[in-house]
UniProtKB/TrEMBL annotation:
GO terms for cellular component: plasma membrane. This is Rod shape-determining protein MreD. NCBIfam families: shape_MreD. The gene is mreD. The keyword Transmembrane applies. It comes from Aquimarina algiphila.
Length: 168
């Protein structure tokens, strides 16, 4: 097992622990919850085996669901963004993604911010649509998606800046 694999395993465990022990208990104003566990999906290696990545992402969401008793909505949302990730990477990074030379720690703030926004909004739209699952509550879905996304994006960007790796 190499150093990068160990780093990803530790990142997975730490993000799950922080999410289930601290962040799942934050319910600011009744609808603001940060979901930073998706940082694991955002930072996964570009060249990871696609099938393995989908399985790991599903397991990540399933673990969050088990601790939150949320019936599979996190597993579904994680699976969707893991599947959507190549599209988001291609949209934001273009040729750098095509040649697999993207390192999130080395791209500009604007590109990193666009990528995080795209992934977080996608995750949250799926999450809250499945959680509420009632079209007559579309405004509640939009409100929860926007405010929780804003909260998650701010915390995610802070984490990415504070724990940036210097890849040479």
């Amino acid at each position: 097992m190499n150093r990068d694999t160990l780093l990803h395993i530790v990142r997975f465990i730490v993000l799950v622990l922080v999410q289930v022990t601290i962040l799942n208990h934050i319910n600011f104003l009744g609808f603001l919850n940060p979901y930073i566990y998706i940082i694991f999906i955002l930072l996964a290696p570009i060249n990871i085996n696609k099938s393995l990545f989908l399985v790991i992402s599903f397991i990540l969401g399933l673990i969050i669901d088990m601790f939150g008793d949320s019936g599979g909505v996190h597993a579904a949302a994680c699976l969707v963004i893991a599947f959507f990730r190549p599209v988001a990477l291609r949209s934001v990074f273009g040729l750098s993604y095509e040649f697999q030379t993207v390192k999130l720690s080395q791209v500009g703030f604007g590109e990193r911010f666009a990528y995080v926004i795209l992934m977080v909004l996608t995750h949250h739209i799926v999450l809250f649509s499945l959680e509420i699952f009632n079209f007559s509550h579309i405004l509640l879905i939009v409100k929860k998606t926007l405010f929780s996304s804003l909260f998650t994006i701010v915390i995610t960007m802070l984490v990415l800046v504070l724990f940036r790796r210097n890849d040479s």
